[in-house]
Amino acid sequence: MAPDPDAELMLAFQGGDASAFRKLFERYARAMVAFCHHFVRNAARAEELAQDVFLKVHASRDRYRPDARFKTWLYRIASNHCLNEVRGAALRRPPEGEPAELDRLAGSAPTPEQALEGAALERAVRAVLVRLPEKQRAAFVLCRLEGLSYEEIADILGSTIPAVKSLIHRATVTAAEALQKEGLA
Amino acid sequence: VIHPLDDLSAYLDGKLDPSTRGEVEAHLAQCEACRSECQGLARALAALRTLPRPPEPSPAFARTFFQKLEAQRPWYGRLATSWWTWTAAGAVAAALAVGIHFDVLQLPRSREAELAEHLEMLEDYELVASLGSVENAEDAAVVAQLNELEGRP
Question: Is residue B114 within 8 Å of B135, Cβ to Cβ?
Fold first, then answer.
């Protein structure tokens, strides 16, 4: 395995270097908020979830072993936390309708046409994510929206690479069907 | 004919080994249904790449996080590192030091004042010794000298 500078920071943090944790926080804050946003589609809630993830990282520092890449370990914690959140939200969610507080993805100022298309795409992806079984959802987010490799996703989800390949494929087929139905792909 | 539908996403992601990739490509070349399926998946992946970026963390994100982190620490941990605790501890230590210093300087003077007061008020200097103020040989020597001056035994 190639040297992992994040793992070195985590080991320094285990040794009592609080500044090492701060560096990891700064390095992954944006990625964690974005990752959590894929699950809850609400900026404020995504930030709370991301903060929870970092609190867990802080509290679990003694359990980290450098044989796992830090990024993989971090995303594993985040995936479990977000899936738990989704399960809880599914139990709390009213049976019909879409929560009003869901917000739109931020980005550079689009043209009106791009904004319309982006919003439609966003709605379609959101609807797909809600429908996907949770492990497919995690695999889809990690692969299609976060750009992680099959190997990393297998580590994060505690699955084999063939199993991950299957999860990603089924989720991608579902997404493709939905996008085609909406005329977006 | 076996249609390699389950391999199409991995094929598009470049995750198939060369042998399997060759088999899939050979099949796609002759199967229009699979080719159409593959093209549909490719269009969906292209569309997903155009999704707007998720939001950046708000300016308060880091500050709120470190406040939460601080609130979770045990009280003795917070005491150990907060600047105001050290400031307060320093102030207490300084006050104690000043108090001790004052006490050290003032205590002998108080005894002397008390002794002088009693020496003025009391005719019988032996009573001075019973006041508990004469606690050292120097004070006792003073009393003895005064007694001698007064012609007392």
Answer: no
User: pLDDT tens, A67-108?
Assistant: 889 999 999 999 999 998 888 776 565 444 444 444 545 445
- Sort out which chain A residues have CB atoms less than 8 A from B8's CB and list them: 169
Position B50, amino acid: T
Q: Rounded to an integer, what distance in angstroms lies between the CA atom of residue A52 and that of residue B65?
A: 9
The tokens describing B42, both together, are 């490719």
B54 touches chain A (CB under 8 A): yes
Helix (H, G, I), strand (E, B) or coil at B25: helix
**A51, A106, A185: residue with CB nearest B47:** A185
- Separation between Cα atoms, residue A157 and residue A76, nearest integer Å: 7
- Note the pTM of the prediction, 2 decimals: 0.68
In sequence order, the 6+-apart residues with CB closer than 8 A to the CB of A142 are: A75, A79, A148, A152, A153, A156, A157
CA B88 to chain A, closest CA, distance in angstroms equals 24
Distance in Å from the first CA to the final CA of chain B = 135
CB contact under 8 A, B51 and A176: no
